[in-house]
Amino acid sequence: MTTMAPDTGARDTAAYEAAFDAAVAAEERIEPRDWMPDAYRATLVRQIAQHAHSEIIGMQPEANWITRAPSLRRKAILMAKVQDEAGHGLYLYSAAETLGTGRDELLDKLHSGRQKYSSIFNYPTLTWADVGAIGWLVDGAAITNQVPLCRCSYGPYARAMVRICKEESFHQRQGYELLLALSRGTEAQHAMAQDAVDRWWWPSLMMFGPPDAESPHSARSMAWKIKRHSNDELRQRFVDICVPQAESLGLTLPDPDLRWNEERGHHDFGPIDWTEFQEVLSGNGPCNDQRINQRRRAHEEGAWVREAAAAYAAKHGKATA
Amino acid sequence: MTAVKAPLAAAALALGDDALVLSHRLGEWAGHAPVLEEEVALANIALDLLGQARTLLSLVGDEDELAYLREERAFRNAQLVEQPNGDFARTIARQLYFSVYQHLLYEQLAAAGGPVAPLAGKAVKEVAYHRDHAEHWTLRLGDGTQESHARMQSGLDALWRFTGELFEPVEGLPVDWSALREAWLSAVTGVVERATLTLPSGPQSGAWTAGAGRQGIHTEPFGRMLAEMQHLHRSHPGASW
User: Fold this and answer.
1) Are B232 and A128 a contacting pair at CB < 8 A?
2) Nearest alpha-carbon partner for B23 in B55, B70, B60, B71
3) Is A122 helix (H, G, I), strand (E, B) or coil?
4) CA B98 – CA A186 distance, rounded (Å)
5) According to CATH, what is the number of the domain B8-201+222-235?
6) Residue A8 has pLDDT above 60, yes or no
7) Can you tell me the distance from the alpha carbon of B42 to that of A87, in angstroms, rounded to the nearest whole number?
8) pLDDT beyond 50 at A320
9) Coil, strand or helix at A116
10) What chain A residue is nearest to B237 in terms of C-alpha separation?
11) Which Enzyme Commission number(s) are on file for it (chain B) (predicted)?
12) Which of A86, A98, A233, B179 is the most buried (most CB within 10 A)?
């Protein structure tokens, strides 16, 4: 965005709003110092914080397998991926901070349950193949969601997403390749891969959020060009991408209603269990307690380390990190 | 990669096992670090070490066979690196002792030429970073709060008896071990003192720790660590991943 305020000198909100709307309509980027509607700011803080929290909580299901990775090559890939996720969390907290909030405040809100993270990370990683299924399906869904965010109207978020999407695409290919190795491996490995896909398919579809008709924030986010496509559009895009990939993996997707619809030019698919989605969202998923407790524990048990760094910095007058 | 002959193989195995085992321990921190920047840093160090381990083990044979199919008694890592993470100060104490050692050792190996020199030359850059990280945290924790000071001191004290083993000569390495020990002691002493901490006064090795890991005699937590690390690989004999 080029102007911080209309140059009339008028300080009335209507003029600011008009300038903001015009900038958004012209596909200009809103930057931290620009005027923005309070609700726009609040929506972005909520969305970026939730996104950052998802990266941080999302480390857990995968880190669960670092110490058991079955080859040194896979172990290195997985460690690098989990490290990238921490890095993504850091970019995103920085982006959120440009909106006038602080990382500590956001982490407090995560730990106290006032802000959410993606419901997908409340599912357990039960076998090694789950690491591949997360890469292929969960990262695949995330990318489908996030690529349009590279054009989001808020500059710092859009720029963070450009960097994140590059790394995520890499993770997604690695996940696919992991599953392919299993699918073409021994009978037991193939079965492990199929079982993982069976368990992760539906939760991945839920990552796009509720159906359009029940998505409270969608219309406004689309008007503000924070969001570019509806939940259902993105979900459909994802299904269309995954079906041929599943075929080349030699794995099936656990949906008897899944078939190509010539007329629509898309795949039809079966109904999503929205009751399960709501349950997981409201804290009753398989790992909600475990995930948040581990996160809280790491933070609480690390308090003395952060205090030490702060005390040292105060004594020696330099940055802590 | 072509396998090398003993005694270089034995040396590569000792250094490779050090890197492999410490990398594994640091990997256990993922998702548990006190601050997000340390999630990145500890994983980064773990990855560097895993890279070193893969190169070194590949000099000896198949990296996965060596990592996943040897039993406890066949591992040649020093006992220091297998010690459990404990709290952050314990982990940092282990990092300080080991990274200073590894840095000085690799500097010597890089300068000495021979088959390990190229690897050492590459690794020394990574290890300089690990050392810097450990030294800075030792300073922050030692000279931070009363609690962090006490925890850091306790970490240094608890691991001290495992440090003597690092200077047991490893056959096949062109290293001046007593010079290495002197340089290590002087560097560690310097950091410990700047951190307002006290260099532990006990013996640097005992009946159980003098060269024991290098001979395949390990501490109890190590078998459990290997059980976790090797379980999946061993459950699918001959499979590729």
Assistant:
1) yes
2) B55
3) helix
4) 40
5) 1.20.1260.10
6) no
7) 12
8) no
9) coil
10) A186
11) 1.14.13.149
12) A86
Q: Cβ B50–A186 below 8 Å, yes or no?
A: no
- Compute the half-sphere exposure of residue A58: CA atoms within 13 Å on the CB side of its CA: 29
Eight-class DSSP state of A30: B
Handedness of CA A70, B88, B93, B223 (dihedral sign): negative
Contact predicate B221/A59, CB 8 Å: no
How far B144 CA lies from chain A's nearest CA (Å)? 4
Q: Per the structure block, which two tokens stand in for A63? A: 């880190």
In angstroms, the CA A180 to CA A140 distance is 15
Q: Is the dihedral of CA A234, A239, A240, A244 positive or negative?
A: positive
Alpha carbon of residue B194 to chain centroid = 23
Note whether A29 and A153 are within 8 A (CB). yes
B229–A contact, CB cutoff 8 A: yes
**Using an 8 Å Cβ cutoff, are B205 and B195 in contact?**
no
A-to-B residue pairs, Cβ atoms closer than 8 angstroms:
145
Eight-class DSSP state of A273: -
Q: What is the pTM of this model?
A: 0.95
Of A182, A188, A302, the CB nearest to B33: A302
**CA–CA dist B158, B85 (Å, integer):** 12
* Cβ contact, residue pair B40, A186, below 8 Å: no
Q: Within an 8 Å CB–CB cutoff, is residue B51 touching chain A? A: yes
**Encoded tokens for A125:** 């990683």
Closest CA to A279 of A270, A288, A266: A288
Find the residue in A nearest to B65 (Cα): A71
B221 part of contact set with chain A, CB < 8 Å: no
What residues in A contact B46, CB-CB < 8 Å?
79
Residues of B with CB below 8 A from A182's CB? 241
Q: Compute how many other C-beta atoms are within 10 angstroms of the C-beta atom of residue B102.
A: 28
Evaluate the omega torsion of the peptide bond into residue B7 and state whether it is cis, within 30 degrees of 0.
Answer: yes
Q: What is the dihedral of CA A88, B43, B229, B100, to 10 degrees?
A: 180
pLDDT of residue A117: 96
Q: Indicate the domain borders of chain B.
A: 8-201+222-235
Q: State pLDDT tens for residues B38-68.
A: 999 999 999 999 999 999 999 999 999 999 9
Residue burial B103-128, b: 16+ Cβ < 10 Å; e: rest: bbbbbbbbeeeeebeebbeebbebbe
Which chain B residues in 96-115 lie under 8 Å from chain A, judged by CB atoms?
none
| Distance in Å, alpha carbon of A226 to nearest chain B alpha carbon | 27
Q: Which of B101, B192, B204 is nearest to B161 (CA)?
A: B204
Q: Answer whether residue A311 shows pLDDT above 70.
A: yes
ipTM of the complex: 0.96
Is B233 an interface residue toward A (CB < 8 Å)? Answer: yes
First to last CA, chain A: 33
Q: Do A68 and B241 touch (CB under 8 A)?
A: no
User: Would the CB atoms of B47 and A315 count as touching at under 8 Å?
Assistant: no
Average pLDDT, chain B: 95
Cα distance from A139 to chain B (closest Cα, Å)?
A: 18
